[in-house]
Design brief:
2 copies of one chain form a homodimer.
Chain A: H1 31-48, H2 53-60, E1 65-66, H3 67-73, H4 79-91, E2 95-100, E3 106-111, H5 113-146
The structure holds a DNA duplex (20 and 20 nucleotides).
DNA sequence: CGGTATCCGAATGGATACTG
DNA sequence: CAGTATCCATTCGGATACCG
């Protein structure tokens, strides 16, 4: 049981315009600040949290791949969703698409520098899930038992 | 342009059963390992990436709140989605629900220790988005221009 | 090979009305 | 106050067929 935080103190959720500032652990913020912060973060969370994006990024982190190569490596993905996922990642600048105008055509997909840098915070989140997977699983079991 | 990684070397995406091991930067993994790793991480990514979960967690990080208090603080959320979001977070052990059997009834929601600990990696991801928001925005503009 | 187009069922999420 | 129940529009995502 934590005591309620005493008071807000202003500042945005990630205020400094220059990086490398730890941000004085923003436990308390004005609701408007929380909203503006999450409005930026949530859409990307939703993108990499969708059914296939993380899988594609992880497979591509080993190096560039062709379209059907990805399709084979990512078990169960449909052609439609692979196309959609790659287009979204490309639009956000996380993946680059290179067309070789040969016959038959060849298209290479590769993580950009931005795409590679994303793996760092995502892996931190992955580590958190891994460390707490048992506690989460136990909580779910207990919850599902309670509601008969 | 990063060179493709030379060779795979085995190990799961987050292999150690005990924590605190940095994991020798897994750039290359067998597809099966990537799949097993993402199968664990992606569902939680999808949970906190949904429309309201992060907002609820952020508001609750300042301390416990009552149901209608949350509804007022989180602009635009419907009663239905607030209930659903809180139930999901509770099921995963990120939020606790305390009922005071008074009249009128009172229900307090509060982040658990697990919920608080989640904020650390999520804020790291938020920092990444914040630092790269301009590059992402530029990439989207360029992409949308290209396709007329 | 690397897609696009179409159809369709399932899941997401808002609006509204009702309840203990 | 703190929900539940219902209806409905939109989106997600798989299956299939076709195309340059």
């Amino acid at each position: 049981m934590l005591p309620p935080a005493p008071a807000a103190q202003g500042g945005t959720i990630l205020s400094p315009s220059h990086s490398d500032v730890p941000a004085p652990d923003s436990a308390d913020l004005a609701p408007a600040d929380i909203h503006s912060g999450c409005k930026i973060v949530t859409p990307l969370l939703a993108r990499i949290g969708d059914k296939w994006s993380m899988l594609v990024v992880m497979v591509l982190s080993a190096g560039p791949r062709r379209f059907n190569e990805l399709k084979r490596l990512i078990d169960g993905i449909s052609q439609r969703m692979l196309t959609h996922t790659l287009r979204s990642l490309e639009r956000d600048g996380l993946v680059s698409r290179t067309v070789f105008p040969t016959i038959p055509p060849r298209v290479d997909y590769e993580l950009t520098a931005l795409g590679h840098s994303l793996r760092v915070p995502v892996k931190a989140l992955g580590a958190w899930v891994f460390e707490n997977r048992d506690e989460i699983a136990r909580s779910r079991l207990a919850f599902d038992d309670r509601e008969d």
